[in-house]
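Researcher: Good morning. I'm working through a list of sequences from a screen, and I'd like to move beyond sequence-only analysis. For each chain I'm collecting a predicted structure so we can compare shapes side by side. This is the next one on the list. No need for commentary yet; just the structure.
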Amino acid sequence: MPPTTIRSPPSVADYTPLEEFQSQTPASFTGGKPVLYHHLTGAKATIPKSQAGVLAMFPVDAPSRPPHESNGEEAPEEIIEREVDVFVHSESFTIFSKEAEAGVSIPYPSISIHAVKNEGGLAAIWMQLEFSDGGDSDEDYNCIDLSIIPRDATPEATKALYEAMSACSDLHPDPNEGEDEEEDYSDRIVFEGSHEALEGFEGVLRGQSDGGLPPPMPGSGGWITADNVNEYFDADGNWIKDGDHQADLEEDEELGDGAGRTRGHDEVAKDGVNGEQHEGAKRAKTD
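Model: Good morning. Structure tokens for this chain:
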């Protein structure tokens, strides 16, 4: 989301103070002045010299200086510093430099990170800004490292600024958040209409109230009815998966009638084994 350049300095009168907003019921929740959560005057705003030119108040030809300190071994990058007034309000994060005669209103979703940091021994708010040029790749974004140091650079003053920014950011969630997290329903069964589960059978649905049949289950090749339900569910109501049941049926056909069936002792005694009478069966008495 792009920032908005402003050329006229904002005024506290342009906003409704948060205390006033919270103490009364507004006549309307639409329109009206933005709510001012926090205001600073005489603060300092800094960005790296290499990122100049993106924000109007930090032009490429602006004078730069070395940073206050460097924690690394490499030479620290020069920075551009401006004295600014800060307006943390319900619509955007706004800073204005009287020296540059320019300011910027930054949409909260463009502030990807904001945190408290130590800058030259002073408590500051560091934020990373991401401004989209309308594309989707990383090359279509301008990233800015912006730091704000309150004039009274105490931990309390910095914390108040941080909390105000957090409260306003919560009012503007990123509209693109969660777009890449769409739920995958490809492995699920979705039934249209309202169907009641058949008691005692897992996954078996009753027919519709108008007499229509329930939807077919996966792998069934058609409708499941009272006549063929045993082909798809065992006696405990469990779905017979991966063709195991069909494979058993085909194996039984190859082995012949009665394959896979347990026969009782009386039946074995009557029929015999391998075509001959079982020796345990009763023989006719002969003289």
